[in-house]
From TrEMBL:
This is LysE family translocator. InterPro entries: LeuE-type. It comes from Mesorhizobium australafricanum. It is found in: Cell membrane. The chain crosses the membrane at residues 41-63, 70-91, 111-132, 144-168. Its main location: membrane. The keyword Coiled coil does not apply. It comes from the Bacteria. The lineage of its organism: Bacteria, Pseudomonadati, Pseudomonadota, Alphaproteobacteria, Hyphomicrobiales. It holds the Pfam family LysE. It is a multi-pass membrane protein. Keywords: Cell membrane, Membrane, Transmembrane, Transmembrane helix.
Amino acid sequence: MHLASLLIFAAALFVAAGSPGPSIAALVARVISKGFRDVFPFLLAMWIGEGIWLSLAVFGLAVVAQTFHYAFVVVKWAGVAYLAYLAFKMWTAPVEAKEGGMPREDSPLKLFFAGMAVTLGNPKIMMFYLALLPTMIDLASVTVAGWVELTLTMALVLAVIDLAWVLAASQARRLLNSKRAMKVANRVSATTMAGAAAAIAARS
């Protein structure tokens, strides 16, 4: 692909993915509540989910996505339910101020599922790849090599954005040393996570 096309795609994705939305809200809430150590399955699933949407757009499978619309609706509501469950767990989580104590980690598989559901069920992401992307790039002329270049560009942009959010949330978490501060952080994280679930549920 032409470098100019990749740069246009990267710039548009940077703006779209970098703006706070349900996915970023869920990611930040998770890191503030539990730390960054077990968030990577969630991140990996988010990146794979965006890769799926990109592939559907590049290979002209938008019709397939529409055909299996109800399957994506099921995924969307499963994601909403799981985010709501995580919000409940954050809200009711006991506060431990033991030196060096680490919170109990959730199953990597559960976190992967949550990240995948958030991404596949997010209409904002779907519209970017299936509606906006074709206006920026002539997808009919994209070869397999071009798809690889787009995918690598996507992965790089998302890694920069998401890891920056993880770092910022992790730094904020370090400032929370007291039980009261951790309780407030858990409640704020729970509210943010619930807000992410509500935002996904409200979008059609």
